[in-house]
Amino acid sequence: MNRGILDKVLFAIVIAGAFNWGLIGFFRFDLISFLFGNMTWLSRTAEALIGISGLYTISAFRQMRMKS
Hints:
The chain is mostly helical.
């Protein structure tokens, strides 16, 4: 997979995670649990992917700052 495409996909996952946290904070509604069940393997996998995507985005952001 092209790195530019990977960056965009992982960034979209991070945005989805931020949207989910906004829903939790404002409305006490967990979209991931609603879609995949509360603490099922599927919801835990989705949350783990969001976490990994966030960590990757942090490292990508650091690389972008170093280039400028």
